[in-house]
Give the backbone structure.
Amino acid sequence: MTTLDNVSIIVAAAKNGAIGLRNQLLYRLPNDLKRFKALTTGHTIIMGRKTFESLPKGALPDRRNIVLSRQEGLHLENAECYRSLEEALMQCDYTEDVYIIGGGELYKQTVGLAKRVHLTLVDDIPAEADAFFPDLNPEEWTEVAREEHAPDEKHAQAYVFIDYIRK
């Protein structure tokens, strides 16, 4: 699979790769949400239909929202809908920053083509999860930034922001 220089993955995952349960995020981390907003605002985000449906207010503002679904003729307010990742990427200009925001199946499809990964690693292993982020092969990725955070009044778990770039 060819790496696309303009494609990044952004994800918050537990130590075992868990990212969600019953179409909901596992963790409420205000600083992670701020980082997500800072990185993705003004850019294109691509997500699966279930991820879109989990957004509390629908399409995220100040971003081009692209939703993937096999459902023919799907129309979602303030979002472009495509039936495949390939079709969606063909609608993106190579100069446009594209962020893959989930869910688990889309992460599996895109981990081989993304140039960057912005990971929030949560110091936890949840009792239950049904969506996971795939393991990153250390032979393919180089850590370029790390910012550690201890638990505080707004964050029940310790977490680390880690940025990777493909070797």
User: Anything to note?
Assistant: The two ends are 14 Å apart (CA to CA). The longest helix spans residues 30-40. The mean pLDDT is 96. Residues 4-158 form a domain with the Dihydrofolate Reductase, subunit A fold (CATH 3.40.430.10).
